[in-house]
Design brief:
By secondary structure, the chain is mostly helical. It has helices spanning 25-30, 34-54, 57-60, 75-88, 91-110, 112-133, 135-152, 171-188, 190-195, 211-242, 259-263, 287-317, 334-342; strands at residues 158-161, 167-170, 246-247, 270-271. The strands form two sheets. A two-stranded antiparallel sheet has the order 1-2. Strands 3-4 form a two-stranded antiparallel ribbon. β1 and β2 (167-170) form a beta hairpin. α2 packs across α5 (91-110), α6 (112-133) packs antiparallel against α12 (287-317) and α8 (171-188) runs parallel beside α12 (287-317). The longest helix has 32 residues, at 211-242. The chain is flat. The N and C termini lie far apart (66 Å).
Length: 343
C-alpha cells in the first residue's frame, strides 16, 4: 500500500509517516512530467543560486586544504568537495545558468544596448583568451627546435629548461608535451577563431538566401547545435576530469544518485592525481587535457550565446548592423584578408 504524501510548501521537506525518506512538493512536481521537470527546476533556480552564494563554504571549503596525497583532515572539507563535484555537472547548476540566460535575454530584448554590451563582452573575452593561447603555437615550434638541436647535436637524454628554477625531464617527456600545446590551441582558441570567422563552413543554401534568413539560421544553429553539444560534452567531461583527480572515483552515473549517498564517500576521499604517461619517461600530465576539455565546452557555450545575441540584433537592425562592434584581427595583407572573409 502506497503512503500518502501531503505537501505544505515548495522548498520545505515534509515528513511522510511510514515512508523511507522525505520529499518536497517541488520534487513531486518535477517528477510528474517533462514540462513540470523543466518548470520546477526553473522555479527552484533562484533559490539554489542565492543558497550557493550565501553559503560558499558548503562547496568551496575544500580549497583551504589542498592535500594531494593524504586524506582531508577535516571531514567537512571533504564533503564540500563532494558537493562541488556533484553540483558541478548537475541539473540544478544547468537550470541556474538557464535561468540567468533567460533573465539576461529578456533584459536584452527590452534594452538592445544591453544585449550589444553582452555581445561585446563575450566576444572580447573569447578574443583575449584566444590571442593569449595562440602564443602556445610559437612556444611549440621553439621547443621542437630545441629538442631536435639538443638531441641531434649534443645527443643528450635529458633537457633542463627554466629561469632560476629549472625543470629537468627526459627528451621523450618534452616531445610528448608538444601535444599539450596543440591541445591548448585547439581548445582555448576555438571561440576566438569563431569570432574571427576562421571556421570552415559547409555551405548548402546559406549563400543563396536573404540576409534575414541567414540570421535566423544562425540563431537556430547556435541554440540547436552548438549549445546542446557543448553542454552534453561538459556533463561527461566534468566527471571524466574528476575521476582522474580524486579517489574514490566518481563518474557521470553517480550524478543520478542521492547526494547523501555520495557524501558517504567523503570519509575516504583524497586527491589522487593520475600522472601515468604512455611511455616510461613520457609526459605524465594528461589530466591537463581533461581540464582543457571542460574549458573548451565552456568557451563554446559562451560563444554560442554571443552568436545568438549578435544574430538576433543583426536580424532586427538590418544589414547596416552586420559586423557591428566586431573586433577582428587585421592581417596587413589585402589578399589574405579577402581569403579570410570568404571562409
Amino acid at each position: 500500500m502506497e503512503d500518502e504524501i501531503t505537501c505544505t510548501g515548495f522548498f520545505r521537506p515534509v515528513e511522510v509517516e511510514g515512508a523511507e525518506a522525505t520529499i518536497s512538493c517541488l520534487e513531486k512536481f518535477q517528477g510528474s512530467g517533462g514540462l513540470q521537470f523543466v518548470g520546477g527546476h526553473l522555479l527552484e533556480a533562484p533559490y539554489n543560486l542565492v543558497a550557493a552564494l550565501a553559503n560558499p563554504s558548503s562547496w568551496l571549503a575544500w580549497t583551504s586544504e589542498l592535500s594531494f596525497s593524504n586524506r582531508f583532515a577535516d571531514a567537512e572539507n571533504a564533503e564540500s568537495l563532494i558537493r562541488f563535484i556533484y553540483y558541478g555537472a548537475s541539473w540544478e547548476l544547468f537550470f541556474v545558468f538557464l535561468f540567468i540566460f533567460l533573465c539576461v535575454t529578456i533584459a536584452g530584448l527590452i534594452y538592445n544596448r544591453f544585449m550589444w554590451g553582452c555581445v561585446r563582452s563575450l566576444e572580447g573575452f573569447a578574443n583575449v583568451v584566444g590571442r593569449i593561447a595562440a602564443w602556445a603555437g610559437l612556444l611549440m615550434v621553439l621547443q621542437q627546435v630545441v629538442i631536435i638541436f639538443m638531441q641531434r647535436v649534443f645527443a643528450v637524454s635529458e633537457i633542463s629548461l627554466g629561469l632560476g628554477v629549472s625543470l629537468t625531464k627526459d627528451v621523450s617527456w618534452w616531445s610528448e608535451e608538444l601535444k599539450f600545446y596543440n591541445a591548448m590551441i585547439v581548445c582555448l582558441c576555438v571561440s576566438y577563431t569563431f569570432v574571427q570567422g576562421g571556421h570552415v563552413r559547409v555551405d548548402l543554401v546559406y549563400s543563396a538566401i536573404s540576409y534575414r534568413a541567414k540570421r535566423i539560421i544562425d540563431m537556430i544553429g547556435s541554440m540547436v547545435f552548438m549549445i546542446p553539444a557543448a553542454v552534453l560534452t561538459y556533463f561527461y567531461g566534468w566527471f571524466f576530469l574528476w575521476r582522474h583527480l580524486v579517489t574514490p572515483k566518481l563518474s557521470a552515473s553517480d550524478a543520478s544518485k542521492n547526494l547523501d549517498q555520495l557524501l558517504l564517500k567523503a570519509r575516504a576521499l583524497k586527491f589522487n592525481v593520475e600522472t601515468i604517461g604512455f611511455s616510461p619517461n613520457g609526459f605524465n600530465g594528461y589530466y591537463l587535457f581533461k581540464v582543457l576539455l571542460v574549458l573548451f565546452t565552456i568557451l563554446v557555450t559562451l560563444q554560442a550565446i554571443a552568436f545568438f545575441y549578435r544574430s538576433y540584433l543583426e536580424w532586427k537592425e538590418g544589414p547596416t548592423s552586420e559586423g557591428k562592434f566586431l573586433d577582428k584581427d587585421r592581417l596587413g595583407d589585402p589578399v589574405a584578408e579577402q581569403v579570410a572573409e570568404i571562409h
